[in-house]
Specification:
455 residues, alpha/beta, TIM Barrel, 2 domains, eight-stranded parallel beta barrel, 13 helices
């Protein structure tokens, strides 16, 4: 059978059955797993839990064909007679969406929650703050959005080009907006993890409240690493304790992101203080692998390994749980080929085939490490993705390859690309996803003359 992700086992009855709905019962089995049986008697789903039932329903939708992914129109009425036994390889199957560099309206975030659910991905990591914008409403500190949510201009293309977009950019989510996103995701068994990035990538906060920073300045209009970081005064620590208290009130989940990356010259005390505050609040801190250099971290801290896999291996050996997201393999803003038609080509070439070939389990692990490999996430940074259309182009169909890697056994399917083209791209068409064609970008997806920085 041609599914994304692949089933663990499948028996095709060689005939079609009339689809009349389904019945679900809960049984023992791996978390998120299910058994789906389709016959003349109807569809029976045996699921380990509610997430398993959701995964089974997504498989059922795939069996019904691309038309089942349209919002309206003639509904499919037949389904193959089959038995499928399926469960995920990894518990953490995530996507990081950067809404700080370029703001995505709430409706687009909700659409991405739906797209994650369609692909049996179950974590949405929202990068809510950066040098270029603050997107989270903090009622105690309203200037964070009054000032920090807007910038006067944006670099257009790579920073070395000198080009600017010539227009302001901004937006933010109210706390009610984010509660709506969290609940919408919860109903689809997607966990939303918020991130407030400290002590670097904080220029938008410093623009709103200059006393937080070392050097002042406005909301940044450029890309790259900004050397202006937060200071370590106790008043700054207190400020961010309040910010994270409001964040944890809006996001009820266990895991809270605190960033910690690319902070030149910072000693790490602010990161450690906020990590301890998160733990005292009954939650788990989640940060980029630079936090390993901040000094002793609280028990329960989760590390996202983005500078290769070495940081993740080190973290597991130190007893921390890890999410793999190495830039060389799963940064979906990186260019998809070395063709000059690729719009704003940045980073290393990361093809669809490259993403599918990747294994999240790094070499060198013995299985004796005290920390666990929870899974992995693909990261979508949006410096050069200024609209939902551009995000679609960067993410798909590579995100479908990532989804299959995260769900399926480690063995690779040599027919993956053919299976994708025949069965899954029509589903993306039905969903209205403006993905990159396998043959290269459409003319309207190109940005000729806008320089990037390919490596």
């Amino acid at each position: 059978m041609n599914l994304l992700p692949r089933p663990v086992s499948y028996v095709d009855g060689g005939r079609l059955c009339e689809y009349r709905g389904w019945e679900t019962v809960l049984v023992d089995g791996p978390p998120g797993g299910y058994r789906l049986l389709s016959s003349d008697d109807g569809v029976l789903i045996e699921a380990h839990d509610a997430a398993g039932e959701m995964n089974a329903l997504q498989t059922l939708r795939q069996l019904l064909g691309a038309q089942a992914f349209r919002a309206a129109g003639e509904r499919p009425s037949v389904i193959p007679a089959c038995e499928i036994v399926d469960h995920p390889r990894f518990a953490w199957r995530g996507v990081m969406l950067d809404v700080a560099r370029h703001f995505l309206p709430k409706r687009e975030v909700l659409r991405y929650v739906e797209l994650l659910s369609v692909h049996k991905l179950n974590v949405l990591h929202l990068h809510l703050t950066d040098d270029q914008g603050w997107r989270f409403e903090v009622k105690r500190y309203p200037k964070l959005t009054e000032v920090g949510a807007w910038r006067e201009d944006s670099r257009f293309g790579d920073r070395r080009s000198g080009g600017m977009a010539g227009r302001p950019h901004g937006g933010f989510y109210t706390q009610d907006d984010l509660r709506e996103i969290v609940e919408y995701a919860r109903a689809r068994h997607v966990v939303v993890i918020p991130e407030i990035d400290i002590p670097g990538h904080s220029q938008a906060a410093i623009a709103a409240y200059p006393e937080l920073g070392l050097h002042g300045g406005g909301v940044w209009t450029d890309w790259g690493i900004n050397e202006r970081v937060l200071n370590t005064e106790e008043s700054t620590v207190d400020f961010f304790r309040t910010v994270f208290d409001e964040l944890m009130d809006v996001f009820p989940g266990e895991i809270i992101g605190l960033g910690g990356d690319e902070a030149p010259g910072h000693d790490g005390e602010l990161v450690r203080a906020i990590a301890r505050h998160i733990v005292r609040s009954g939650r788990r801190p989640y940060g980029w692998d630079e936090i390993l250099e901040s000094g002793p971290l609280p028990v329960g801290t989760i590390v996202a390994s983005w500078r290769g896999v070495e940081g993740g291996v080190t973290a597991m050996r130190e007893g921390h749980d890890v999410v793999m997201c190495p830039e060389q393999h799963v940064y979906l803003d990186y260019r998809q080929s070395d063709s000059p038609d690729e719009p704003i080509p940045v980073g290393t070439v990361t093809t669809l085939e490259d993403v599918y070939a990747w294994d999240p389990v790094p070499a060198g692990l013995t299985g004796e490490e005290p920390g666990r490999l929870l899974g992995a996430q693909a990261n979508i940074w949006t410096e050069h993705l200024d609209s939902a259309r551009r995000v679609d182009y960067a993410a798909f169909p590579r995100l479908a390859a990532f989804a299959e890697v995260m769900w399926s056994p480690a063995e690779k399917d040599p027919d993956f690309v053919a299976r994708l083209a025949e069965h899954h791209l029509p589903r993306l068409d039905a969903l209205g996803v403006e993905y990159r064609p396998l043959s290269g970008p459409h003319p309207w997806q190109r940005l000729p003359g806008v320089p990037g920085f390919p490596r």
